């Protein structure tokens, strides 16, 4: 096995223009820029049980009223929007950022879904959406005896 050492910096890169590196370091380390460059889509777990599909969506810091769940044909869309605006009259700001976050996730539903049996619950930062199955889609389990 051969180990090759790669240089971490190019030789004399700061000698060419010392302001270029510091500009880009400051630009990409600014929280205003990095928050907008990173897409914030919550992680999702999807599980199937005998009687339902369960969608778990990690969305901490939101409230029940922030979520909207729409079902259209064979598509379920989960979206959330939170806008927080604090007005403090007695302070002078040199920089003030409003807190605003939103996301939308869509999932296609199989034909075995019972559209009248969809429930959602938000507990401890996790949105749990339970989508029930039709009765004919629930497979009856039985033990087959070998003769």
TrEMBL record:
InterPro entries: A-crystallin/Hsp20_dom (IPR002068), HSP20-like_chaperone (IPR008978), Small_HSP (IPR031107)
Xref: Pfam families: HSP20
CDD domains documented for this protein: ACD_sHsps-like (cd06464)
All copies of domain SHSP, residue ranges: 35-147
SUPFAM superfamilies: HSP20-like chaperones
Family to which this protein belongs: Belongs to the small heat shock protein (HSP20) family.
Name under which the protein is recorded: HSP20 family protein
Organism ancestry: Bacteria, Pseudomonadati, Bacteroidota, Sphingobacteriia, Sphingobacteriales
